[in-house]
Design goal:
The protein has about 800 residues and is an alpha+beta fold. It contains 16 helices and 44 strands. Bound molecules: calcium ion (3 copies).
Length: about 800
């Protein structure tokens, strides 16, 4: 990312910018060249509490380095600490200010924050109509947070004292009685206090009234001062690896009116213009394919209509210009302008790079075989590492031991921190907390967490079955022994890996059906303090059965039970739709596994028949409106009303069934595929990249992959309607032709510049598990796309999921197959 930050082209014609003040713009944020100050353009309303994406935020020379500006109840808030609800937001154009009302319903505590532009700075003031509730006195404060990876090792000055932001969290902490800790989300606890009844509270790195940070890095420099409150600087990583540096002022007790006032001045580099981001495929291009780079330009960049060059790197290391052309303008898309450089005419294999103005990209290949290995890292490394209930090793390294040896307990009635719940009844023969035998087998970790999401695991098996049935990949790079519960990467065992992955997924799903009687929602953590686990999956629980008759942390004399309530739970509220989905996948799995593992195939078939019958009966008893989703399915079987938009939505399912149907079915589908071809072209007008770009709180890679898979299949079955040129859209996007930066979203895939960090279970190591696919470009309102590559902890942009990554396997397998076919 650094490449994009350091650009400091001083343009003499931009002298006006030097004197620029912060102005409230039409998009309701404060702006001057190089600085955007957002005030609750994004509020704390995501699914997972404090997502480090909200409140007062600063986008500083193109990077969102400051967020979390709000009244908070902790020195260094964690993800599950309470967040304020924004009850009102008022923009006052006349006075250049934005006011938000914040409420903590748990404490009946209301406050107002008013942010006003004052020259090159903003004033942030907290107003109270009623004093801070007694329970929160000394705890409630005005906080703002700084991105560690952009500030560590940079200097700061508090009053007259100098310091440097630490590279790693090593400051001091104290412990305090739990009774003093503000309530966490739904009453959960993020920490295991080991029986001390005390929580850890970080001490400040510095305290004073005036803080100047990063004078050694003009693009990060900020000055913050307060006359009426003491500023305290903390390191949030002391409590949680995903914490940020926090600056805070505690709100005074017993006071009303304007209680805390800060002046915040982010430095702007005079005349700053963001370096062009030249988007292209880091994996490279095959000679015959369309080759169009999309160049993202600062609106103040004078190079809006230049000439780009394709440079060829010669065998002697020199470069020559292979092609040159005027770029074509696409126009504005959110905050930047876009131009395109089409070098499709260059077909000669070789090593190339692109130059536009002073910006030159890293090199890439034009070569017939560039896409041959795009799925290998995912199938050989990422997927086997996510196999649950196995010991997984690679070379000298053990990725994890065998997790959850004590099995899974029946969940009691409960809410949950990962969006699940267990209803009043268990819908099983088990009593709450009773061991459900046989569930600790097979299955895949959900994502950066370690639970078995049943729906996602069904998707995984479906994805592998689709890949197997269409392409029969024989690749064997993984040793899998269910008997030894042992997996070794890069050790062939004579069995196709995909079949072993299908078997591993089915083993858990069938065990659920057999032991529980129907499908669970999830097999997940029972306590929050081991849900956020980072490290060896085998150490999440102690491997001993929980025995409430023992004292906490006590182990029974026979060494088999413990008093630590860390066992995982099975959430068993029955959902007949999920059962139907499972029945579907069991039927296909039985088909695939017959001849490979006949016993498992028979078990899958038996459960398929039983679940389908029971679920159908259960659904028939439900009220009419509850059955709406089934109407969609009717369309597929030709009994519905034939809504064409619905047909496009279901096109993939219909394409998937072509091999099982006759020619009439294929002919009947043609008009829908024709509509789909128009829909594909439509994306060229919607955005410069020609793929569906999601604006949700979780970036859109799943939608992009779905789109890519459907385009690929549509081309396979209807090459006269969907041409081969269309299949490259999603590959371009994934491998580097996208906003913000031009790195490949697939870990280690992309010859010269894949992303470096992903949100996986290894995120605290600032690394990536090979083959992981990032959600990608996260949209922050009102106009900012981002994908951090130095900070792995934002799941919405960097977390790979088991369903998404196996979707990538289908995309990549079908894509490779089409590219290779002549
Ligand atoms: Ca999960
Ligand atoms: Ca194998
Ligand atoms: Ca245990």
């Amino acid at each position: 990312m650094k490449k994009l930050l350091i650009s400091t082209l001083l343009i003499t014609t931009c002298t006006l910018a030097v004197a620029q003040d912060l102005k409230l713009n039409d998009l309701e944020y404060f702006e001057r060249q190089g600085v955007n100050v957002l005030v609750f353009s994004n509020s704390f309303n995501g699914g997972f509490n404090d997502e480090k994406n909200s409140g007062i935020e600063v986008i500083h020379h193109g990077v969102r380095t400051v967020q979390g500006g709000a009244v908070r109840l902790n020195n260094t808030p964690e993800q599950w600490d309470l967040v304020p609800m924004m009850t009102n937001r008022k923009v006052d154009r006349e006075h250049g200010s934005i006011e938000v009302n914040l409420r903590y319903a748990d404490y009946d505590f209301d406050s107002r924050i008013v942010v006003t532009a004052k020259g090159k700075a903003v004033e942030i003031a907290v107003w109270l109509d009623k004093p801070v509730p007694e329970r929160l006195a000394g705890e409630a404060g005005l906080n703002i947070e700084f991105l560690p990876s952009q500030y560590w090792l940079k200097t700061y000055q508090m009053d007259n004292r100098l310091g440097r932001f630490p590279r790693y969290a090593t400051s001091q902490t104290i412990t305090r009685p739990n009774s003093e800790k503000p309530r966490q989300f739904k009453g959960f606890k993020t920490y295991d206090d080991r029986g001390t009844d005390r929580f850890v509270d970080p001490m400040p790195l510095e305290t004073g009234h005036s803080l100047l940070i990063a004078t050694d890095a003009p693009e990060r420099m900020i000055r913050i001062s307060s006359d009426d409150a003491e500023l305290k600087l903390y390191d949030g990583r002391m409590l949680a690896q995903n914490g940020w540096f926090v600056l805070r002022s505690v709100l005074p007790a017993g006071k009303t009116g304007k209680v805390v006032t800060w002046t915040v001045e982010p430095h702007a580099i005079p005349g700053w213009i963001r370096e062009p981001n030249i988007g292209f495929s880091q994996v490279g291009y095959v000679p015959e394919q369309p080759k169009v780079a999309v160049i993202e330009l600062d609106k103040n960049d004078p190079m809006q209509n230049g000439t780009a060059s394709l440079l060829r790197i010669n065998p002697d290391g020199t470069t020559t210009e292979a092609f040159q052309n005027q770029v074509t303008s696409w126009g504005p898309y959110f905050k930047y302008n876009y131009v395109k450089f089409d070098f499709s005419s260059v077909r000669e294999p070789g090593i190339y790079c692109i130059q536009y103005g002073k910006t030159r990209t890293n090199d890439f290949l034009i070569y017939e075989h560039v896409y041959d290995k795009i799925t290998d890292a995912t199938t050989d490394v990422w997927v086997p590492i996510h196999m649950n209930h196995m010991y997984v090793t690679e070379g000298y390294r053990t990725w994890h031991g065998e997790p959850f040896k004590e099995g899974y307990l029946q969940a009691p009635e409960s809410d949950h921190f990962d969006l699940h719940s267990q209803g009043k009844t268990t819908d099983t023969k088990y009593k709450p907390y009773e061991l459900i035998p046989g569930l600790n087998v097979g299955g895949f970790f959900d994502a950066g967490d370690f639970d078995i999401e049943t729906g996602s695991n069904i998707n995984v098996v479906q994805n592998f079955i689709r890949t197997w049935e269409l392409f029969h990949p024989q690749r064997d790079e993984t040793f899998v022994s269910q008997e030894q519960r042992y997996v070794e990467l890069h050790r062939p065992d004579g069995k196709p890996d995909i079949l072993q992955f299908i078997e591993h997924g089915v083993l858990n799903l069938v065990a659920q059906a057999e032991q529980i009687g129907h499908m669970s929602q999830t097999l997940s953590n029972s306590v929050l303090d081991n849900y956020h686990h980072l490290g060896d999956a085998a150490s999440i629980t102690d491997g001993l059965h929980y025995d409430p008759s023992l004292k906490p942390y006590e182990i029974s004399a026979d060494g088999k039970r413990s008093g630590t309530p860390d066992d995982m739970w099975a959430f068993t509220t029955r959902n007949p739709r999920l059962d139907l989905q499972a029945a579907g996948v069991f039927t296909s799995a039985a088909r695939v596994l017959r001849g490979y593992n006949d016993a498992l195939a028979a078990r899958a078939q038996k459960q398929a028949d039983r679940l389908r019958k029971e679920a159908t009966e259960l659904l028939a008893k439900r009220p009419r409106r509850d059955r709406q989703a089934d109407a969609d399915n009717d369309w597929l079987t030709g009994t519905g009303d034939g809504n064409p938009m619905l047909a496009i939505r279901h096109l993939q399912t219909m394409l998937d069934s072509i091999p099982m149907k006759d020619e009439t079915y294929k002919q009947k589908l043609r008009p829908t595929v024709q509509k789909y071809a128009e829909y594909i072209k439509n994306f060229d007008r919607q955005n410069p990249y020609g793929v569906p770009i999601g604006l949700g709180n979780w970036a859109g890679v799943n939608a992009v992959l779905n789109f890519g898979i459907t385009v690929n299949y549509a081309h396979i079955y209807y090459p006269d309607i969907v041409s081969k040129d269309e299949i490259y859209r999603v590959a371009n996007w994934l491998y580097g032709c996208h906003p913000y930066h031009n790195y490949s979203f697939v870990a280690v895939v992309g010859a010269a510049r894949p992303k470096q960090v992903f949100y996986g279970n290894n995120r605290a190591d600032f690394s990536a598990i090979p083959g992981n696919v990032a959600p990608g470009l996260l949209f922050r309102k009102p106009d900012h796309f981002e994908n951090f590559d130095d900070w792995p902890f934002l799941w919405g942009q960097n977390e790979g999921t088991i369903a998404g990554n196996t979707q990538y396997v289908i995309f990549g397998s079908s894509f490779k197959n089409i590219v290779a076919s002549k």
